Amino acid sequence: MPKKERKRLQVVISEEQDALLTRTAYELSSPERLISKSEVVRLAIEKIAKELGEGAQLDDYRAILETEGVSDENA
């Protein structure tokens, strides 16, 4: 079976965000399976999309994006 083609995305994140990503991957990992930071990002994307589809408040997400360290307007 041919390998599923994936799109690549490069983003710039802060050291604090990288630390959060690393910690989350570590916490989700088990002795049987290590979880990569990329998998954590994919999981987060799916979770946010699902919540938005279920009527999550857009204002809540917008407020998070406006907080320091999350927005990429200064990049």
Structure description:
The chain is mainly alpha-helical. 53% of the residues lie in helices and 0% in strands. It has a domain at 36-70. The chain contains three helices and no strands. Helix 1 crosses helix 2 (37-53). The chain is globular. This is Transcriptional regulator.
Features of the shown structure:
single chain, about 80 residues, mainly alpha, 3 helices, globular
What is the secondary structure topology, with strand pairs?
Layout (H helix, E strand, L loop, with lengths): L14 H14 L8 H17 L4 H9 L9
What's the gist of this structure?
The chain is mostly helical. The chain is built from 3 helices and no strands.
Number of helices: 3
Q: In terms of structural class, how would the helical and strand content be classed? A: mainly alpha
What is the CA-atom radius of gyration, in angstroms? 15 Å
Sheet-strand content, in percent, reads: under 5%
Helix content: 40-55%
Q: Can you write the helix and strand succession as a string?
A: HHH
Largest sheet: none
Distance between the termini: 40 Å
Number of strands: 0
> Spans of 5+ residues with little confidence (pLDDT < 50)?
none
Mean pLDDT figure: 86
Protein name: Transcriptional regulator
Organism: Deinococcus xinjiangensis
